[in-house]
Amino acid sequence: MFKKSPEKYYSHANPKEDIRARLEKDCVKHQDDPREILVSFIGDPYQPEEMRLELTRESIKLLIRYNLTFTILTKGGTRGRRDFDLLEGYGKSRFGTTLILPQKEFNGLELTIEENLRRNFLLSRSDTA
């Protein structure tokens, strides 16, 4: 049960003080460590405020700079696309998201999953060629 209304709860992020500096300190300590870092749903990396704060984007840059392996999991919909330019070509990263597609398009399976992704989320024709 929310103690605050959902509107108030989701209205702003409250990141920890000096979060970028703290993350970089950890990245330096673990540079080249092959263990996977999970950036996940617990504090979704692509909350609406992320588009303004860019904490996830800056974190990705640090993880890449220090050659760390990571997976991003989000329910943030298409907001994560903004950072695909950073992830592209970096073989130690993975990206996962929850997709919710309109039910009407699955009735009778009129569209394939690939067609739904293309229409509703990420793919362009060149992505599947």
Write the SSE topology.
Blueprint lengths: L5 H4 L9 H11 L6 E4 L10 H4 L1 H11 L3 E6 L9 H4 L5 E5 L15 H8 L9
Parallel strand pairs: 1-2, 2-3
Give structural notes.
It contains six helices and three strands. By secondary structure, it is an alpha/beta fold. A three-stranded parallel β-sheet has the order 1-2-3, with no helix packed on it. Helix 5 (84-87) links the parallel strand 2 (69-74) and strand 3 (93-97). Helix 2 packs parallel to helix 4 (55-65). The chain is flat. Residues 123-129 have low confidence and may be disordered.
* Low-confidence runs of at least 5 consecutive residues: 123-129
Share in helix = 25-40%
**N- to C-terminal separation?**
47 Å
Which shape, going by the Cα principal axes? flat
Kindly report the oligomeric state of this protein.
Answer: single chain
Radius of gyration: 17 Å
Output the keywords.
6 helices, 3-stranded parallel sheet, flat, alpha/beta, 129 residues, 12% strand, 3 strands
